[in-house]
Prior knowledge:
Oligomer: single chain
Shape: globular
Structural class: mainly alpha
Strand content: under 5%
Number of strands: 0
Number of helices: 4
Largest sheet: none
Helix content: 40-55%
Amino acid sequence: MARIKMIEEAEAEGPLADIYGASKARSLAGVVPDILRTMSLRPDFLAAIDAASRMHFTDGALSRAQHEMIASYVSALNRCRY
């Protein structure tokens, strides 16, 4: 059970539903990641975090795959499941 109140995908409306839909479409697993759902009570904040995340993971000097590998490695070092 989550300790942080989150708005479920089926309950999302307006901008939050739009963010959830776009996030789910980008997800290889076809789900809205829990890390985004934890910010669902503040759709304005979630929109800013989501935009920054999408910018961060675009191809540039590093590919998206390389960004993901680094993020996974740092998460493992920090014993974080994200």
